[in-house]
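Input.
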Amino acid sequence: MQTILYADLIASFMSVSAEPIACQECGQLHRYSPLALGKTANCRRCGALLYRNRPDMLDSVLALTLAGLTLFVLTNVFPLLGLRAQGAEQELHLLGASLAFWDQGYPLLAGLIILNIIIFPLFELLTLLVVVLTIRYHWRSSTAIFLFRWMREFKPWGMLEVFMLGVLVAVVKLGDLATLIVGAAFWSFAGLVLTMAAATTLLDPFSVWRALGKNNG
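Output.
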């Protein structure tokens, strides 16, 4: 009897509002209503953020994504750090840092590092580019929906910030043993971390899902 009443309640709610929204934290159902620019909608039960209306969100995310792709290329082309000791000098690239673990007999660790600092960040940037362009130009969104879903699944595994912290620790530790040369990729890598963090902060997942759903008909 309770199951039937609950089903009737949901059906009644669906008939009143074409776009019901469930809070991701507590499951409370809400009715979607447009927001003024800069405003946010919060759950009336737990106060969690439901969605927001950021001004120029797509343009900002697109600009940050293009900047991120440029910085990603620079980070992987130029040396990250250089080490000079006893007249010998050695440069370290981002991919080389990963392959060094392979050479030391840790193939699993090397594979995880490549996934976390190269493949996942590149996948996230390309997905953001596809999603934003799909919404802007009203393309069919089945591909964008697939990519965006998996991007959100892989997001916790992109550990650029952790790797950047490890690089900073290495710079401090090795500074007393040898002369360190900070390469161009070090600065582009720092910019990449900040750019991707800014794009993630600006992007409103609910607005993206809603726009993609409309494009998908």
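The mean pLDDT is 80.
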